[in-house]
Design goal:
Helix content: 40-55%
Number of strands: 3
Radius of gyration: 29 Å
Distance between the termini: 66 Å
Number of domains: 2
CATH architecture of the largest domain: 2-Layer Sandwich
Structural class: alpha+beta
CATH superfamily of the largest domain: DnaA, N-terminal domain
Order of helices and strands: HHEEHHEHH
Shape: elongated
CATH class of the largest domain: Alpha Beta
Strand order of the largest sheet: 1-2-3
Number of helices: 6
């Protein structure tokens, strides 16, 4: 088993592993291609779009929602014309847009609302008219949550 220090990614370990060098070179190439493609996409749509691949004249991008995907499809000729300005994408003839929703979304924080005096009064009034004992207790407890 290797030591923990041997497993760290250092410039020396990258030079010793040709597979890792190849992987890093491909990642950099993909990142440069993505920058070119995203620059060609209208600014209002860029947030939800990612470059996937380009094979055999087919440029594939992914969109977070169907709305963004349909807007991209509507403007595909404009996007392809802008992308073709770069030598890397000179022979693009088709734009394929796939919908791939974001994996993680942060849920908005929920805030408890303050019960107004008017609503508390209405709850107490309703509790007074209710014949069910359990419901009356619940309504009175809710009415007591008012902040002054």
């Amino acid at each position: 088993m290797k030591k923990k220090s041997d497993l760290k990614l250092t410039p020396e370990s990258v030079h010793r592993a040709p597979v890792l060098q190849d992987l890093l070179a491909r990642a950099q190439h993909h990142q440069q291609a993505e920058a070119v493609v995203l620059a060609a996409i209208p600014e209002s749509l860029r947030d939800g779009v990612r470059f996937v691949c380009c094979q055999e004249g087919e440029l594939t991008v992914s969109a977070e929602s169907a709305v963004i995907a349909s807007q991209l499809r509507y403007r595909q000729h404009e996007v392809m014309e802008a992308v073709r300005q770069n030598d890397l994408f000179r022979y693009i003839w088709k734009l394929r847009v796939k919908v791939a929703p974001a994996r993680y979304k942060t849920a908005p924080k929920t805030r408890s609302r303050v019960l107004s005096n008017e609503n508390a009064r209405l709850l107490k009034e309703e509790a007074g008219h209710t014949k069910d004992k359990n419901l009356r207790e619940v309504l009175e407890k809710l009415a007591s949550h008012v902040r002054t």
